[in-house]
Amino acid sequence: MVKDKDMDSLQKFGGIQGIAEALDTSLENGIPGNEEDLRSRRITSTILATTQTPARSFLQILLKSCNSYIIFLLFVSAVLSLGFGIKEEGNRTGWYEGFIILLAIVVLVVVPALRDFWLKHSQTMTCTGNQKALEMWENVDVFRGGCQQKLSIRNVLLGDIICLERDYLVPADGLFISSGFLKLNDGSEFIVDKKNPFLFYGAKVTEGTGRMLVTAVGMDTTWGHLMKQGTHAPKNTPLPAELDKEDVDSSLPDLKGKPISCEEIMNAIKRIVLKPNGKISTMTTSLVMSLVGLMEGIPFAITLAITYWNKKMLSDKAVAQEPLACLTMASVTTICLDKSSWLPLNPMAVDMCCTEMLKEIEAGRNAGFNVIFVSEDNLSGLEVCEGGLLPDSNRMVLEGEKFLNHSPEERMNIVDKITVMRSSFPSDRLLLVQCLKKKGHKVAMIGVKTNEIPVLKEADVGIVIETCSSEMARKGAEIIIRDGNFNFLVTIVSCGKCTYDNIRKYILLVLTVNAAGLLISLLTTICFGYSSITSVQLLWANFVVALLGGLALLTEPPAGKLMDMPPLRRTKPLITKPMWRNLVSQVLYQVAILMAFQFKGQAILHIKEKVSKTIIFNSFVLCQVFNQVNARELEKKNAFRGIHRNILFWVAVGVTLVLQVAFIEIAHIVSGFCLLIGVVSWTIDCTTKCTSGCIRDWLIAPINSHMGVNSMTPSAPSEPTSNLELPLINENSPPVSS
């Protein structure tokens, strides 16, 4: 009766008094409150958890960072390196290799712990405003046995009489039993009185005082029933699986990976640490330094890019309560928009904004995502815009009940075509989101009410409008938009795509420096018995790339046609074909030129071995500096386009060059030679991209010729179509070309 707001059935049951008698409670004194009565009521009540999981301390996070057998192997390697080094080389330099490995272990353990602690602390601070607003809700005034007492909301039971005042949140479903009225807000304002006595969990009292009779608590409330229908599957980011570091809470750290025996561990350590003659391998610390660069450089870049762009693009117009929410928005293919989340903001200016609204919907569909409007009303208020919302006969307006009555197969067939869902309850919207996700869509839900929290949780990204949403809804959302402007959704998607694009640029740079460095170290060790790039030098190169190079690339402003990119897909490979092309070409160039110099440099320039090694290292670092420019454009030939807009890029490159000059002092002529080697990497990048483009055109030309396409003659105009007539995209479909 309460769930359906069935006033007729309530009157037939005997009204509120009849409900009170059925619950064995008094409207004046409440439930008896003795131990036996409380025990029986607790058995029938499903407790609703309202407190968040306590934040883990830094020590707990630090222990979790040790949760890897890689750390264990490195530690044993460090101990053996120290032992064998002291034994073989004496106390002067024997500690060197082991010390470098121990330093790497500290970085691999402490840096992730600091990063995770910072992220969790930032997320906690972001949610502080909502949490403070809910603090007064922790305790409520309840009448039991004729006495008023304060109880935690977790102890509210069936039949309790609860006092409600201004700014209180309704802690359960129930009936209003006072003579006056209450004005409440649950995304939209409504009045509760004798004619409409139904109260639901999560609504906020904005005016008046009174009492309520509790008829359902916890998971038995309307909100709880909806939560039970959700799948509660973990939300994945668009990052490839190998980069998505999901936290799994555990009381004690366990070694990850497959169980390995002591013999396997010792054999692995011997292969890593020792040469065939029993001495310490010169490759040991080089491998460790690359491990540090890859394991910590890439996660560091992801964290930095997400934090930077969330603050820069969202500024004061939105709050990302979940740091990865904006990144996930870059993969969204469908946005479900509650009509009440934007129409009530300025009813006189609706739909006046219809033209602008349609432009933004068109921009959204060009960006690869569809927009579905949902409404509780039969008349959605969007009739003026429906000409634009329904660009072809394949799209439809559907009532929530009809969608619910369809068979599962029929729902899956029509879910892609729905543009407006009228007369829909939260349960209908939850089913809509579930069907879209089963179809392969990434879904964002924009809601305002407490009963939409299960839908917000079910969607890949839950979004609320701050000015017209309930406090409970804001607490359960990943993104809070402070401005009710629909246009800002495009900004959020642009933020996610820009972040992802910059992360890929950084990953290409990090892979290049580590692949080239390790290959050079391997070849020189095989040929000469020592590495021309020492472990400290490789650590320096990784530091320059991870910190300054990351700053340069991660702050790259979004490109003009960024929104033309199709939605990101988690199944898409991390390293694309253009990235592989650029990576291989740069690594081969660096290895070839520096190995050639290692063999013939001393004879050609008439220099000593020490100077030769210095030139190789200096050239290696300068190649990475110039390759930062190449990494700005993964596919286009002009890597300098728009470089003037990023002042931080110039600052980062300048500081890197200054630090390198301070780190290495060599003659000016030799410095010019190193600079020339670095500059040639630009030519290599441009040549590789041009050659790749010519090969691609040469392969495509026969196909176009076979299809009757003449590149020199414009084709006949096609039939006019609506600007909004774009196909829907899911993860199983090929990307739409821009």
Automatic annotation (TrEMBL):
Residues 139-228 form the P-type ATPase A domain. The keyword Cytoplasm does not apply. It comes from the Eukaryota. GO terms for molecular function: metal ion binding; P-type calcium transporter activity. Residues 711-738 are annotated as: Disordered. This is Calcium-transporting ATPase. The chain crosses the membrane at residues 68-86, 98-118, 287-309, 506-533, 539-559, 647-680. Keywords: Magnesium, Membrane, Metal-binding, Transmembrane, Transmembrane helix. One of its GO terms (cellular component) is plasma membrane. Pfam families: Cation_ATPase_C, E1-E2_ATPase. Residues 533-667 form the Cation-transporting P-type ATPase C-terminal domain.
